[in-house]
């Protein structure tokens, strides 16, 4: 049985993700923090602007972690954690608590999960848009 290697998310990729999300946010007049994790959940890149709300750094990291763990944009998971949703009883005893607020997006290459980006600081819909624009820049 042969396997096909998929190139991992590199530091250069992570820096491009951060720069693209930051630029998109600045163009919208929003100050954000951005976190990029590799497929193992390790921090590859992080940016927190001093003008951003202090908690935005933790928020961006937890959004990225949630998108990575569940391999789905956090914007798509909001309804799943509501009573009666698929993840309503999801345990929270993970390394980091999951955060079901839009702004976390998984990063795929050749159809395989290689990392995630999280953006925090704007409205959830804005954060999701900034993260999505950044992921599109890798294509």
TrEMBL record:
Signal peptide start and end residues:
none
- Specify the domain of life of the species encoding this protein: Bacteria
Annotated Pfam families: HbpS-like (PF03928)
Q: Which InterPro entries match?
A: GlcG_carb_metab_protein, PduO/GlcC-like, PduO/GlcC-like_sf
Q: Which residues form a coiled coil?
A: none
What is the name attached to this protein's record?
Heme-binding protein
